[in-house]
């Protein structure tokens, strides 16, 4: 039996891949016996910060990662596709239905034994184990992991955005549109003029923050891709307008003809706050890029300064939590095995990858290799010309002195043999090479899964 610790995105994918290889799995999840600082339910693969997996197009880094996982038979990405909600060019899901469906699938799988308990320490080397406890690893297990590795943990602070009830958004002020009118009008947009923007920024600067547990405020470090909105406000007067409040490409038809250049110059909003659909029915909406550590009362006061949200009903407030990750370049191989104990594999954000799809990718690889070890086969490492391979090679081989979490990006991949100047065409060439190099692993993975299922039936 293979042990998987943690039923987040990585653990869910790992458990599924191991079971599909015909092996029994013991999946240990501490919730609801012990709650984490950021989760709201006991469901598997709960999405904490956002409901978006990122860009859907395969000539974008996040989209390529999703497409690779589809071709590798990922349960999590397949389930995400089945629970997608409108989000312009992104893959966003109804996170309640998504997590509930994955929980049901794993709990009813004949080869998966779910144990709701806190894992206090690592098992011995005789037990093949996937460690997928994520950045919110419980204190006892994190301490045992520190003893095992002989290294102190790395950490940063991450935050989640608030969610509001759709019926409380004033659509006389806000408007529906996607940036540059790409796809359907999937976002609700709240426009600000200069005065409203400056008043909002000042309120953010003056608002009271929640205390960071166990750490001094001034010592906190943040993942740059997920900065709290108040931190962006502190970084400069225009920072938010070049980030989540960017007004470019957003136009309310009520303002007049978009193609009238003079009108466009006069009417264009100074800043725009976007809200993305959270559930399938469009009753809940999250504020895009509005991760925050403000106290809940302050969130209500400050965010109601946004035009269209004056009477917003907050279904969930934003929260901040401490994320822990391993010094992976010192510890892991590109197969995600610990060098000092090859029967122990790590997966997900604890390895130092960033983003939902990256966590799923780690779960796929760790689960696949755990199954191969159990069957007496050699583990695999995917080529660095694939996005999954680029990420896993990076975390295993990056300079360790300043190792920080890394999201999927084309800069991790080897350069193309022929230079392509135009960016979109260049990313398309990266995609084509990645999917071609991934193809043998898709075939091999599927053939091995079929063989193991036949042996199990026999």
Question: Can you put this structure into words, describing what you see?
Answer:
- There is one protein chain.
- With 458 residues, the protein is α+β, with helices and mostly antiparallel strands.
- It folds into two domains: 2-156 and 323-457, FAD/NAD(P)-binding domain, CATH 3.50.50; 163-318, Beta Barrel (Elongation Factor Tu (Ef-tu), domain 3), CATH 2.40.30.
- It is 34% helix and 16% strand.
- It is built from 13 helices and 17 strands.
- The strands form four sheets. It has a six-stranded mixed β-sheet, with helices on one face. Strands 10-11-12-13-9-14 form a six-stranded antiparallel β-sheet. Strands 3-5-4 form a three-stranded antiparallel β-sheet.
- Helix 1 runs parallel beside helix 11 and helix 2 runs parallel beside helix 11 (356-374).
- It is globular and about 70 Å long.
- Residues 214-220 and 452-458 have low confidence and may be disordered.
Please give the number of β-strands.
Answer: 17
Assigned CATH architecture of the largest domain: 3-Layer(bba) Sandwich
Number of helices: 13
Which oligomeric form is depicted?
A: single chain
Main β sheet profile: 6 strands, mixed
Secondary-structure element order, N to C: EHEEHHEEHEEHEEEEHHHEEHEEHEEHHH
Structural class: alpha+beta
The end-to-end distance, rounded to whole angstroms, is 19 Å
- Give the helix level as a range of percent: 25-40%
3D shape: globular
Low-confidence stretches: 214-220, 452-458
CATH homologous superfamily designation of the largest domain:
FAD/NAD(P)-binding domain
Q: What is CATH's topology name of the largest domain?
A: FAD/NAD(P)-binding domain
Query: How many separate domains make up the residues?
Result: 2
What percent of residues are in strands? 15-25%
CATH class division of the largest domain: Alpha Beta
**Major sheet: arrangement of strands:** 6-2-1-7-17-16
Give the overall pLDDT as a whole number. 88
Computed CA radius of gyration, to the nearest angstrom: 23 Å
